[in-house]
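pasting for ref
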Amino acid sequence: MKKQLAIALTAVLGMGCGFAACADEAPEQFDDTQIIVFAAKSLNTVLDESIIPAYNELQPNVTITPSYDSSGTLMTQIEEGATCDVFFSAAQKQMNELEDNGLVVDGTRADIVNNQVCVVTYKDSGTKVTGLADIGTASSFALADGSVPVGKYTRQAFVNAGMVPEPEDGDVSLITTQEVSDALGGIEINECANVGAVAAAVSEGANEVGTTYFSDTYGFEDTLIILEKVPYDLTGDVIYPAAAIVNPEADETAQAAAADFVAFLTSDTAKEIFDSYYFDTNVGPEAAETEAE
């Protein structure tokens, strides 16, 4: 199986600009195949509305079936044997763990976009909160769990701002919601399962404020107000890596298509799409190195 995968990937990688992303000539068409893409919830809209349709304009025979949830949940599902061909994570940590466990196909991993944590409220909320520094004055706060990347980055920002004590082992993802509440003066916190749930809770007025990614405010311009874009100095870079995942059940065509789809995510076409959905495509080695594991 590994030898077959190597041959398939060599064929794809050997195309040079002949990935699906190449604009100068039509890419070689794959035979009918299907790939399953596990992606962070914050990628739901951009993938469904634009990225997958754009890829299918180039490769109409590749059926892409996406599954969205928090990166931590998806990582666990992959580790437990769920069928997956591509993982598109909202943080390096989850991808690093899969790679350490031999579940990432060599040579396919790439950093795709950066994102930014935002403090948001709903329109006409009348909140006095101006940003992260005084978020404890809100009546309620929608916050993702620490296992969810946006929840982890928010906790990191609180720690770096001196608002929440740093845990002894340095793993901010283990800071409980109750510990955050206590550090912020007892604020009521709605612990959310993913970033989409945070955006929904605030936009519907269930919570006065919340922390989401900038990209998750896309489509909520009429209901959400951004109070602050939290500086990368506080959160660290919010890098989203993607990679093909080892899937013993996939044939050579599906394996090659998975690698090709990851390559497409780095193309100029994909970058233009991500930019239009409020993602930051200025991603390089320096950014990837700065993100805490």
